[in-house]
């Protein structure tokens, strides 16, 4: 299995270690590292970058130049040494519930505009790891690998004002100490192309989210541009208590910069959209990477407006007529984001209302099944040996164990090819379908039900991908 081919996203943002992310669960436990394994000095960020560039140079003399113009880094196969990896499984890392309380509050408002504002509040917290962490590289997912967890959070998100002269409306019960459970299931459903399906469920609040995660990355010479892959159509959120209103949230392009400086950073300079066909409300968000004289500002501008789902042609803020605008968005996606009601320009608005302040927020810990109740292809257990070796600074051992996993996956793929059989996901109905919105199999429904009930027992997989 090649690092680039199994997960084209080259980096993520470092957060807490796997053990730290399970503060609300039984300790995931770690297998002991062999006593005779060599302890190596942990690399710092600059030495990691030098090692990465050294890997590229060793592969072929022209490889660094070959990266420029490559349509997708997934087409370039190479394996990174373990010291360049964050000891976190990719499926565990790639979730959108850094602040679950903003997710469960999306449907609280009695008004359509209020629910769209709630969706945007969730949007700006879903990848808090980028704001609070530094770029890093988690493990690549293997075919059939899966991850599951819960969050339990207080239902305390404040209601959002949606009319100039009215009080904010909310159906959330403001009961101190009232916890709500959110369950998450994800599975690597395809290896070529690398795709994982995910499903988020909160029965108590009647809210579901699902989608396919697939990233495409291109080296531009000074940075790496990461965009959603062809099968990643965004996050689809359904509000079951509002006549199954569905919201589609698309992803903007992100950039990994600082390759030449040796100081990596993530920026966003693109547009993205949130649409709800049932309420006929759409959002255009425009991210601005740099300001005057190239000074980074991480600014985001947006408009919320009425649109025609049958004639959805507006993709730029400037294209939206004032008469259709319900609210405007402005702020810094790494700091504070505000909104103003009505169509007037944001700087002339009489009231600028805080949508979200990211400064005091940090990713919320997950509740993960105890390691003894996990299956062999469950992310924490599957990567346990590699994680223990990295945490124990046994980088040579970690690289060897990682290469064994890669060889095992290649061997399984060869067996399927010889038998003329295709891989079938266990928890989702198709590797890449239904388009954009994966459905659960009976096993997937059973696994999700078990999470709701804190019952983590699952029958072993009939077949493993690695």
UniProtKB/TrEMBL annotation:
Transmembrane segments: none annotated. Residues 1-45, 428-466 are annotated as: Disordered. InterPro entries: OSBP_sf (IPR037239), Oxysterol-bd (IPR000648), Oxysterol-bd_CS (IPR018494). Residues 1-31 have a biased composition (Low complexity). Coiled coil: none annotated. GO terms for molecular function: sterol binding. Residues 446-455 have a biased composition (Basic and acidic residues). GO terms for cellular component: cytosol; membrane. It holds the Pfam family Oxysterol_BP. Belongs to the OSBP family. This is Oxysterol-binding protein-like protein.
